[in-house]
Amino acid sequence: MQNIPEVKIGIVAVSRDCFPIELSRKRRQNVVAECKKQNVSVVEIETIVENENDVLKALNEINEKNVNALVLFLGNFGPEGPTTLLAEKFGGPAMVTASAEDTAKDLINGRGDAYCGLLSASYNFGLRGLTPYIPEYPIGDAEDTAKMIADFIPVARIVLGVMNLKIISFGPRPFDFLTCHAPIQPLYNLGVEIMENSELDLLDIVQAEKDNPKVKEIAQQMAVELGKGNTYPDLLTKLAQYELALENFMNKNLGASKYAAFANKCWPSFEKYFGHVPCYLNSRLAARGIPVACEADIYGTLSEYMAVCATEIPPAILDINNSVPKDMYEECRSEIGNYTLSDLWMGFHCGNTSTGCIVQPVMQHQLIMHRLMEPGKKPDITRGTIEGQIKSGPISIFRIQATPDAEIQAYMAHGEVLDINPKSFGCIGVFGIKEMGRFYRHVLLEKRFPHHTAIAFKHVGKALFSACKMLGVEDVYFNYPSGVYYPSENPFN
Length: 493
Description:
Number of domains: 2
Low-confidence stretches: none
Radius of gyration: 25 Å
Structural class: alpha/beta
Number of helices: 17
Shape: globular
Distance between the termini: 47 Å
Strand content: 15-25%
Mean pLDDT: 95
């Protein structure tokens, strides 16, 4: 998977000067040894931080070892000032954790009081306006701490990705999709760069690749990927030219950023001038960690990008599209299990889901656009989408979004794609999420979230929630279990 950060975590022990420094050193070494047992990659920083001069030494060592995410480990009480100063000067994602006491046999010289020291450090993080990652229970022995570090890796990858991301868009966001519009100021607050371009710019860069010999090579790759699903072999050269243009433009325009994602207008004028729909190309780029959101949905592609950083597998962006008919629900009771009808919905899009996430992917024309652009005609310019049933398995839905008054909010929920024939067109699946009906009413509708949701093909709510908090997203919503009421929910319903 390209276009996402490679996390290199360093662990720094801190020590308060009135406590034995060897206690911190020994406990850090135990954590590193346990990380090796658990196959958790971590770089040991030899400098132990007791004062400001140690902070400078530690930073030099961190830079020399190319560490881009940091574990601040309180082996004893720790010096709260230098500890938080190190996090501030480091500037990247940082986690703070504290050592549990080792044994009841040594609670005099061997007592570290890190449980207390973490309270002081937390207060100092607040003074500096920092938001480190703090595990749900941040006190533990070496084995516990190694597990905490493993949990921190996807969180750090998301934060590093967002901090170094550029979103490239082509075309204005369509009038008929005002729900995809949102103020971009919060993106700059997150550290995301924006580069908005016109559809003429897009046409220009695609035409420039017409004679590039790489086009033929990419078309051949497409044919192999599609296999029996290659229903329009004559179209592949056009599609390959478009894909190459986007990727070359991205590489030339990263600038100060390290990673990129796209949010492109994809209809109705697109098809007339490019001669195809862009769906399959969007799916191919997403498979390489370069999400391309439809309808110029900037926050949609950010949501997808955070999802791929969390999972390291291709994401998708789907419409939270339609309800499941009652007769389908009755026909498929054995596959549905204990989901209620209101727990179920269908996720759909024209065809931007990667082929590896679809049961039998086939290239098709886009039916909705065909109705609009080629009514009664043989499909031509509406060809190029990818269709099929989305594979069953665990998923997370996720959306980060600016409100009209430029605040930032997010939601997430765990669920699954059920092994049920959706009996419809597009890339589509039957999704089950516990208490989805209430979540739909009291979060998605009430908080004014748009119809697009990012799909992570794995349960990664834990990492996404923590990353959102580190990035400063105060309002993060999730589906409440039965019996726990949303603030606006009618208890007499």
